[in-house]
Design a protein that fits this description.
- This protein is 32% helix and 26% strand.
- With 137 residues, the chain is of the alpha+beta class.
- The protein is globular, with a radius of gyration of 14 Å.
Length: 137
């Protein structure tokens, strides 16, 4: 998606699961400022925290010497949450379908599916080390 978006916030987070609390606070503040409705807020909260969690655990492999960058961009029509890790990336198309019968009982593998389902658009860049999570305003 080629949109003109203004950057509202950008933070660098340590690759520590405790960083999720800071992400949740920033999402809450942003959604309040932009007057996002409650249903959309829930979708944003789940999608973005999942994206940051994936970046910490899978992209940066929990390495405390690395960080995740979260940028929040917006215009009159869209909000974009950009999550970038310092990992080598991955092929998003190689992720197995979590709704396939053989995957239903697996403990993980649903994060990207959730992000796709709850957002209006999900775009991977930089070999999967950067994900843009778009929501209509």
């Amino acid at each position: 998606m080629d949109l003109k978006l203004a950057c509202l916030y950008e933070i660098k987070l340590p690759s520590n699961p405790a960083s999720i609390a800071e992400v949740e606070n920033l999402i809450e503040r942003t959604c309040s400022e932009l007057k996002v409705n409650e249903d959309s807020f829930g979708n944003i909260l789940i999608s973005v925290t999942e994206g940051v969690n994936n970046a910490i655990l899978h992209g940066n492999k929990g390495d405390l010497a690395t960080f995740v960058t979260l940028s929040i961009l917006s215009n009159d029509a869209w909000i974009c949450f950009r999550v970038q890790d310092q990992g080598t990336g991955f092929d998003p198309d190689s992720i197995p379908d979590p709704t396939a019968p053989e995957n239903l009982l697996k403990e993980n593998g649903r994060g990207i599916f959730l992000m796709k389902s709850l957002s209006d658009n999900l775009v991977f860049e930089k070999n999967g080390a950067l994900v843009n999570i778009y929501f209509r305003r």
